[in-house]
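Figure 6 in text form: structure in, sequence out.
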């Protein structure tokens, strides 16, 4: 097993058959001990966060596969907190795609002159560059095409997939009385035909979910969704 990448919340290994193994850590993003899914630093360590993140990821990826969304998921080993996935080629050095249903986080910090906290946003999609040193700047479709990161056709597909995935996750949470405010996804090109594929994870670590107007911490979200 070869180490490929040491990330903030996961370690990536290459397996002998060419697949990747993602090892989920108990580290979560945030600052000064406070969890924040939008942060670019490890803010704290929560015992059990890795396994819960993986259990949620497995749950959502299996659900999405069933609905016909192309994902990198192969299988998961909850005990070891590892997931086997198909390797994907990144767009540039990686993009994050955010789907927003209510105004919070960086959206509110940027557009606070025109938006109120919690305001409905109708599944608004935006793309940011994975660039920790530059605080993950938002980037437009034209800039992505001009810089050779993503073609216009790929952008269209990325946006369409993001809205589909966001809607599936939102509906699933709603069944448990949970309100999805926003979700952050990652995609890459995978398989022989380099199909645009959902990669990385879907857990409490990359979404903001609320119940009765109160924010739900990642571990609590796992409990609520995975119980029964
Ligand atoms: N199927 C895949 N193929 C290649 N890279 C992947 C795949 N799934 C996830 N990744 C990458 O692996 C890394 C996972 O570790 P993580 O701790 O989340 O990293 P980061 O600190 O960059 O967010 C991310 O950089 C993610 O883009
Ligand atoms: Mg990450």
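Output sequence:
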């Amino acid at each position: 097993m070869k180490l490929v990448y040491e990330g903030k919340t996961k370690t990536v290994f290459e397996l002998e058959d060419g697949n990747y193994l993602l090892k989920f850590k108990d580290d979560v993003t945030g600052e000064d001990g406070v969890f924040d899914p939008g942060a670019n630093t490890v803010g704290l360590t929560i015992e059990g966060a890795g396994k819960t993140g993986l259990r949620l990821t497995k749950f959502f990826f299996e659900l999405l596969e069933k609905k016909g969304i192309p994902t990198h998921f192969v299988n998961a080993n909850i005990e070891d907190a590892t997931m086997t996935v198909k390797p994907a080629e990144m767009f540039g050095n990686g993009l994050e795609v955010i789907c927003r249903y209510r105004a919070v986080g960086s959206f509110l910090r940027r557009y606070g002159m025109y938006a109120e906290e919690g305001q409905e946003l109708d599944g608004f999609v935006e793309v940011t560059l994975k660039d920790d040193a530059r605080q993950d700047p938002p980037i437009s479709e034209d800039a992505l095409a001009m810089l050779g990161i993503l073609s216009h056709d790929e952008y269209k597909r990325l946006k369409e997939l993001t809205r589909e995935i966001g809607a599936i996750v939102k509906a699933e949470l709603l069944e448990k009385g949970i309100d999805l405010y926003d979700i952050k996804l990652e995609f890459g090109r995978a398989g022989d035909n380099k199909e645009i594929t959902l990669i990385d994870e879907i857990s409490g670590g990359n979404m903001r979910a609320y119940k009765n107007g109160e924010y739900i911490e990642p571990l609590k979200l796992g409990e609520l969704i995975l119980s029964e």
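Caption detail: Residues 2-87 form a domain with the Phosphorylase Kinase; domain 1 fold (CATH 3.30.200.20).
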